[in-house]
Structure formats: C-alpha cells, structure tokens
Amino acid sequence: MATGEHLSSxxxxxxxxxxxxxxxxxxxxxxxxxxxxxxxxxVDDGNIQEAESSLRGGLSLNDEEARALLGRLEYQKGNVxxxxxxxxxxxxxxxxxxxxxxxxxxxxxxxxRSRNESPHSVPQHAASLVLExxxxxxxxxxxxxxxxxxxxxxxxxxxxxEKIFHNGIxxxxxxxxxxxxxxxxxxxxPELWKQTGCxxxxxxxxxxxxxxxxNLDNDCCVRIQKRFAVFLLYSGVESSPHxxxxxxxxxxxxxNNLEEAILLLxxxxxxxxxxxxxxxxxxxxxxxxxxxxxxKTAVLARHLEEVLPxxxxxxxxxxxxxxxxxxxxxxEVALNLLRKSLNEHEKPDDFVALLLAAKICSEDCLLxxxxxxxxxxxxxxxxxxxxxxxxxxxxxxxxxxxxxxxAASSDHQRSLLLSEALKSLHEAINFDSHNPDLIFELGxxxxxxxxxxxxLRYAQQFIDVTGxxxxxxxxxxxxxxxxxxxxxxxxxxxxxALDETAKWEKGPLLRIKAKLKEARSLSTEAxxxxxxxxxxxxxxxxxxxxxxxxxxxxxxKANEFEVWHGLASLYSSLSCWKDAEIxxxxxxxxxxxxxxxxxxxxxxxxxxxxxxxxxxxxxNGLSMDSKHVPCKVSLGSLLWRxxxxxxxxxxxxxxxxxxxxxxxxxxxYYQGMVHRDEGRMVDAADCFQAACMLEESDPIESFSSIx
Length: 707
Fold this sequence. Notes:
Pfam families: TPR_16 (PF13432)
Structural class: mainly alpha
Radius of gyration: 39 Å
Largest sheet: 2 strands, antiparallel
Number of strands: 4
GO molecular function, one term: glycosyltransferase activity
Number of helices: 33
Strand content: under 5%
InterPro entries: NPG1-like, TPR-like_helical_dom_sf, TPR_rpt
Keywords: Glycosyltransferase, Transferase
Distance between the termini: 72 Å
Strand order of the largest sheet: 1-2
Organism: Acorus calamus
Helix content: 55-70%
C-alpha cells in the first residue's frame, strides 16, 4: 500500500499513511494534504501532468519532488511502466544543483539550533525523495529487462551523492531514508553490471562501493565484500590494475584477482572473530579454495586455528588442520592430529581421517605398518554407500605393503608382501579402472621388480588416460624402455615429453635424456643435454629473480647439482679427471654434505689407485647417509678386493645394500664374488644368476627416482 509524506518538526518529509473518508490514502507535506485517490485516478486516465500539478499545488512541492512522490506511489502499487513514465520526467541534474549549496554550506552552530533539529533537514529529505525516485527507476528498468539502462540510472544515484556530499556521507546527522537509498544503490550497482555482462564495470563498482565513503552499515559492507570475493574467484575475469589514487602509502596492494579475493575474505574472517557479524561457513569454504589455489595451506591452517570454539566439531577441525599441514609438507604434525581424531573416544572410523592417515603413512617406510592398519580399517568399514572408498583403501594398503616389502628381513617375507601388495592394487583398480594414480602405481611396482613388459603396458595406459600431461608418466615410460635396452625409443618418448611439458618442468627429462646419450656412448651429446639443463636452471633463476619461493630455490639448486654431479660421473667414466674434479667441486659447493658427491669422489680415487682415500670417501658418504646404497656397494667391492680378511665386512655391506635395494645388480655380482672366495659356490651361483637377470633389465637410473 502506498505511504504518504507529512511535514516533520524540522521541516522535512516523513512517511505516514492513514485512511481518508473516501477510502484512499492521504499525503501530508508543509501542513497541507492531498488524497491519493484523486491523484491515482488522474494517473489511471493518463493525465500524469494533472496528477503532478495536483501534488505540486496541494503540497507546495517543486517539479522533481512532485514527480518523485508520484512515481513512488505508482511503483508501490506495482505499476512499473507508469512509474517509469513519471520518473523519466525528473531532471536529476537540476535537483543536484539545488541541493548542492544547501548541503555543502557550513552547518549552523549548536547554539543557533534546537536540540532535536539536525542541520540541512529539509534539503536532505528533499534529496532523499529525488534520489530514491532514481533508485526506484533503476529497479523498474531492471524488472522490464533493460539492464544496461538500469545500471546507468543506479550509477547516476551514486554520482549525484558524490556531487552533493563532496567529502562523503557524514557518519552522523544524515537522513535515515537517504542513507537507506544510498546503501541499496551501492549494493545494487555491481549486481546490475554483472547481469549485463559488463564485468570490468562490475569490478569498478565493487571497488567503488568499498573504497568510497558511503557510511554503509556493517551488514551491508559484509554482503558486498563476500559477493566481490566470490566474483573475483569464480568469474574468470582478470581485474584491471588498482587506481593509484585509491592506494595508501605502505598498504598492501593486491596484484591479481586471487590476492584481492584472499584479502577480502581475511577481512571477513576477522570480523567474524571479533563478533562484528554472524559466522558464515561459506566464507571459510571460499577462503579454503582460494588458499588451496596458491598452495598456502599453512596460512589456512592458522586461520582454522583462530576460528572460535563451537563452530566446528573438534574432530572436524583436527581433520581439516591435518589436511592443511599435509599439503604444506608437515606430515608429522598432520599425522599427530589424525591420531587424536581417530582415537577410540573420538571418531575412530571416520573415512576422511583414515584415508588421509593411510596416505601420509604410505609415503614413509617407517610408518608403512601403521598405514596398513588404517587402510584395512577403511576396507573393513566401507560398505553400501561408502563402498567406493574401498578402492582408495586398497590402493593405500598396496603402497604400504610395497614399502614393507622393501624393508623385509628375508626374501620369503619380501615375496609374500609384494604378492599381497600387487593383489591389493589389482583389487583397487577393479573399483576404478581409469584411476591414473592406480595405473601408475601398478606400472611402477612391476617396473621395480623388473616385469618390464607389464610395466610398459601400464606406463602407456597412464599416458593415454592423462593425455600425456603428467611428467612422471613419461619418465616411467622412458626408464622402462631403457631397461629393455630400447634406447632410441626411450629418446623418442623423452622428446615427445619435452614437447608436451611446460618450460620450467623440463629439468628431469633433460637429465634422463643425458643419461640415455651416455648409455649409447654418445658422450658429446650427453654433455650437450647437461648444458641444456644448466641453461634452463640459469634462465629460471634469472626469470623469477627475488620472487622465487623457498621450494623454487631448493628445486633450482637440486637441478644444478644434478648437472654437475652427472657431468662429474660422465667425465670420471671417460677418465677425464681434471674435468671431473672441476664438476665435482661445483657440485660440492651446492651440496657440501651430499653422499652422492662423496661416492663419485671415491670412484675417481679408486680408479686412480688411491684405495685408502677411496675407502675414506665411501665411509664419509655413509656417515652422511647411512642408507646410501651406491656407497655400500662400492665399499663392499673395495673391501672384497683388499683380500680374504675383509670378506666378512664386504659381505655385510653388500647384504645391507641388497636389503635396501633388492634389484641392485652390482650388489648381487660382488656378493657372488664374496661367496665364491669364501667357498660357497651354490650361493655364489645364485647371486651371479640374479645379477645376470637384472643386468638384462637395468634402467639408466633407478625407478625410485621417478617419485
């Protein structure tokens, strides 16, 4: 029902409605009244000018105020088109011109006005009436589907407010109706631009709404901030650079959509924590998505810890924190949180926690046994609607059993664990035959135990499923082909991978390419491949400069180390001692405590007959890494050569090497030589046979290097 206007004690308009004797509504202003039934009758007959004249004369209003009031009456009745015809007659610029002097003048002193009187009361109420009319005009155009015109009209409301209030809307002494109209217009404008498809204009409108002084209430500001953050995250529209005028010295200025969205969401979360607005779980969901995109899950964990108690169940909070810390590489912290969540007094059968715990444990040989327990609990409890999770449980069980097989104390136990691991992985793939992770795990496991034909089939299937977009599939394919002595085909695979791979991810492929050239005795081409790898590392360092993350810095150092280490090994095999020493020094400067460097140094010393120094280098390598297999094998072979007194020690080192890497052919070979010299011919024959079989399927580098 339409609401009327009557004169307030300060001379402005206030809303009021009451019945007249003829059943219509009466509008009061300036001590005068007009019955709306008479006005509405004239509008219904199409006599808009007569209706305006009736209001203008009856209430002592000017043209714009009369049209604004009449248009509002029509809009409230639902006569959108009639209201629009009335609103079209309002001259907004003329109204602004009239309001500006009154609202920009210095307000009278406190002593010269009554206690209940606010400065500029009449001009503010008049301005409120006209600006509300333009806002309603925008809504009318929106309802009629004229979105672009609606946005322009809504924008004109805000432009008018900025002209009237040069320094922004004051925090106090402002008409409530005017403030309500401004707040609604500020909130509506970006939504209208989005509906028209003018996304850059929407971005500008959002920023204008948050950076200009509109005196918005907290709830309105929260709604705008949330909508803007959602728009930045999901619209797919890259924002234009921020205006320098809007930047404060020393303030953080977002560089892109993602940073700006994260900043807005952090502000919202801060408001939640201070109790300034009600908790909204959607904000945390958007914040999780945004930080996950840029890999800042440790930051997300800190914000989850700051969420007030009672919002999340403690187990859910522990699980979310564990996922964050796991993604940030802090697996120990994550696993401790999951152990608390899976306690028998909490939620011991929570699938999310069990699967995440199994995944973390599957990546560490020392935790593989615990991981197998978690995986078996998933398999046992995954029934009916959760049965699809059984495949994930079987996969992690297979990986954990594979880790346990590598650490098995006997060949029989290793064989049983390996058989069970393969069985679990095959059962898992029955649940999800197109799961690329499962396909890769099966291919890698068959490759490590030298069933290269089956491994090759899975490697090719993985590349088909992923479209060749994942690097480790190409690496597996190339290494399997090298194990089959198909070096030319392996090079073709690497070249294809280089074409498919992003520039900064080509390092591992170039290293494999160099080793393939080395395996074919193409030393010059191998050196050229290492030179390409070094050039890539140097270009990446120069490109990112000081903006590199810690992980990028470590990755660059590792890639450069691989270059010098590979060249040192290559020159050493060619007896180019001077070149080898130069490369070795450069590698040592990057990683002075590397067992790999000490091993190459020992090989060089041994080749030049400096056996004592070589022995010391191998021992130093093991002091750096007690599980370094090449040092154990070289130390065992050197001890074997020194005579019968050292055979027990040699056998011990070689046995340790084989327990860590059962497919090391040189360890089997030297173990056979030790058995032969000690008179155990049957054992020696078995070792020689194993070495011979492994030599036929030995890749250019260990399959374990893929992961």
